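Lab notebook, bench 4. The sequencing result for the construct came back, and we need a structural model before the next group meeting so we can plan mutations. Quick request posted to the team channel:

Model the 3D structure of this chain.
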Amino acid sequence: MGPTGPALFCCRCTLIVLRLGDFCLNAPLSGPHDTASAASVRVAELDEPRLNEETGTAARVARIAVPVLADLGFRLVRVKISAQSGTTVQIMAERADGSMNVEDCERVSEALSPVLDIEDPVKQAYRLEISSPGIDRPLVRASDFARALGHEARVEMAVAVEGRKRFRGLLEAVEGIGREACVKMRRLDAKPDEAVDILLRLADIGEAKLVLTDDLIRATLRAAKQAHLDEANDAPDTAQSPDTGVPPRRGPGRFAARKPDKAKPLLPAGVRSTFKKSKTGRGPQAERQAKPVSK
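Done. Here's the predicted structure in token form:
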């Protein structure tokens, strides 16, 4: 079908087909309009712009990583290049709902490594690191602030607000849409002569990150537990065997295999299999010899 395209193009097309196939299999069968609506919502979540972008070499890596991540159903959180262990390129990614597990990191690494090798944005040798945002995650999109309401965060502004650039406090509300939105914060670092409540424009934020607190850890554990319960409820019920209709055994050892009942040995008539304890203390053998069996 025409001239053969470059290998990178063919690889990315394959990833797009796999992603769309997985989405169609997992989507609810509610009609074509509902499926198209769900697909458009998912694309909109993946395409939500970040408040700040990288510069220099990190920006080149980000431009390469964004379409590859989108093909797999992920979005970029940030790219950070450090001198740790020589040179380390850290790519932080997530799903649209903020989740990211070990298997997801492996998928991203397998898909992104060959693309980076071909594009070669980093001239020196480096170590690629794919990671999740973590609990005390950076806040890079308006939706990140909306999900983090009620938790403590550190915010560093690119533009001074009321004579200062750094704020720390509880995120109370997000007002507006997109980059024009503002976040309302109740400050925990306010001095006696400063206002406690402050409104910060998201477009003016240089860097923001959640603070690791006990409340944040508890909320994360509750969310993980609820997700596990939802996954268990969605799984098919295998409590009752479809063939026999017999419910599983309860109590200790219910997972052990059933052992067949051992058949009792057949004895000749008049032969006993149990013996009473001998009063002479000579044991059952002596008793059996002392009392002949009548036939």
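The first helix runs from residue 7 to 26.
Will bring this to the meeting.
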